[in-house]
Structure formats: C-alpha cells, structure tokens
Amino acid sequence: PCFLKDWELHVHFKIHGAGKKNLHGDGLALWYTQERLVPGPVFGSKDNFHGLAIFLDTYPNDEATERVFPYISAMVNNGSLTYDHSKDGRWTELAGCTADLRNQNHDTFLAIRYSRGRLTVMTDVEDKNEWKNCIDIAGVQLPTGYFFGASAGTGDLSDNHDIISMKLFQLMVEHPLEDESVDWTKIEPSVSLLKSPKDNVDDPTGNFRSGPLTGWKVFLLLLCALLGIIVCAVVGAVVFQKRQERNKRFY
C-alpha cells in the first residue's frame, strides 16, 4: 500500500500488435485502488472499484463516438459507479485526450501526478523526451493506503500490452496545518466538479474540468459584468446624444 499524500507515477509501457486500423483491442488500465489482484470486466480488473483508474483505450466500442482512439481517460470511483464498456466509459469519465501510443518504434511513457487534490496525467509518446499534458483535474480526493497496479483486456480482437517499468516518486509538498488532523486512510474517493461526468457525453474533447469557483474568480466575474454594464451605458448615452443633435439640425 502507498501511504504518500503526494506522489507521481511514471509508467514505461508498450502497446503493439499486428492488427491494423481498428482490428485490435482493447487496452491497458493503470490503477490506484483499495482492491488488488481482482480479475473483472474493466480492462481485466474489477468493476465498482474504490479509487482511481486511468484507461488507455485502443478500441472504440461506441460506433457513434466522435473521439479519436487510442484515447486516455480518467475515472474516480467510490464503489458505486459502473464502467460502461459499450460506451467506452463516457458516462463516468472525468477528462481525457487522444494519444497515438500504439505500435510506436520508440519508447512510450505515461505520468500520473496527484498532489494537493489535483490529478494530472501527462504523456511522452512522440519520442521528444518531454511531457505533454493530457488530463488536469482539481478537487480530487484520494485516500492513502491504496495499491498501484496495472491490467489489460482483450475481446474478440487481441493486442500485446507490455508494462516495462513502474516508478513511484514522493512529491515534497507543504500542506495546511488542518491537514495534520485528517486521517487520510479514511477519505472516500471523490471529485468536486462544476458539472456532472455525464455532461462529458456532449463534449468530444473531454478536458473541461477545473477547480471550484474561488472568491477571486467570483470577484472577477462580477467586475467584468459591471464593466460591461458601464460600457453599454456609455455607448447608449453617446448614441442618444447624437440622435438628439440630429433632431435639432432637422428643425
């Protein structure tokens, strides 16, 4: 089990096979969960899990999808959610991105960072030796004491899913004093969202998540609204004055 509050996981992997176009499947999953080594229908592992899952999905089961595969997505579950394989998990997806990670002749990497309630997923699949942002979600609550793992699944079509290495790093981050009294092993996996994950069905990009509205954001929104009202009032006054002058000239 991992008892780090802030961590970063680097995964060196390779997904490859002889299948062309969509003649391959299904994909790889990376886990930070309460359960471990429990086989199931979600990329080879248990459904209704507790914790975090990152899916590297290589096959579009939903024919109506607008997304380009392979597709990386994130899901946080408290045991109450079911992964809908037929819809590629879109009902429960928090965010995601397209990544050309299959059948590459160079090394491919994925990084998962969790720090102070923020989940970030980055990829290095273009042989540029640099991280590219994929997922960035605020308001994520994950407990300590869960297990890291990986699984993969295939259906009628097959592929090779290789985990070459998994390296975990501790992040040295300062926390507020009130965090010291929290029992991090008792936290329930959750995400504070501005929208329901189901709203993501209508968003082909997947990345719409951000943190909750803070005092500064509310102030800026009110300031922008006030400035807009002032501008409209000034423009209205100028237009009214010009019309009055035009009417005078007419007389």
From TrEMBL:
Domain of life: Eukaryota
Record keywords: Disulfide bond, Glycoprotein, Golgi apparatus, Lectin, Membrane, Metal-binding, Signal, Transmembrane, Transmembrane helix
Protein name, UniProt field: LMAN2 protein
PROSITE patterns the record matches: L_LECTIN_LIKE (PS51328)
Key word Transmembrane present: yes
Residues in L-type lectin-like domain copies: 1-171
Main location: membrane
One BP term from GO: endoplasmic reticulum to Golgi vesicle-mediated transport
Keyword Transmembrane helix: yes
InterPro entries membership: ConA-like_dom_sf, Intracellular_Lectin-GPT, Lectin_leg
Cell compartments where the protein resides: Endomembrane system; Golgi apparatus membrane
Pfam families: Lectin_leg-like
Gene Ontology CC, one term: Golgi membrane
Organism: Rhynochetos jubatus
Transmembrane segments: 218-240
GO molecular function: D-mannose binding; metal ion binding
Membrane topology, from the record: Single-pass type I membrane protein; Single-pass membrane protein
